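ok so i was messing around last nite and threw this chain in just to see what happens. nothing serious, just curious
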Amino acid sequence: MKRFLLLMSVSLGLAACAAPAPGSLAPKDIRSDSNLRKEVVIEEFNFPQVQSRLFKHREHCQISFDFSLDPRQVHYATLRYGTADKPDLADQALLDLTAFSNGKVRIVGYTYYSQQQYLVDAFLQALNKPEACADGIAKIE
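result:
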């Protein structure tokens, strides 16, 4: 009986330490050094321009995105970017954007799976060439 209780205690303890299931991820689960894929500072962009490029990009490529400003600090925004057929956060890139008064925007990109790194790169490419679809993202015919 004691052995059974000990095993149950250890099992419950290990279960509490386990990573969340991909279907139940929250942004706080993805923002970590191990999931950090890229950090860049871009010049001459502001949030409306970023959004405009994303809308143009979505006209050409099968992507989905959700751009949301921090309600208390409008110089911070969060962007979920991914392919249109995979809406789960585990299959998307999570990007934190910070707008500076000098016109620069810092972008910090995270993905849950390392093979989703291409989504961070695709987003950065979309800012410069919204009509181009990166590898792994289908073009709208």
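not much to say yet. The radius of gyration is 19 Å.
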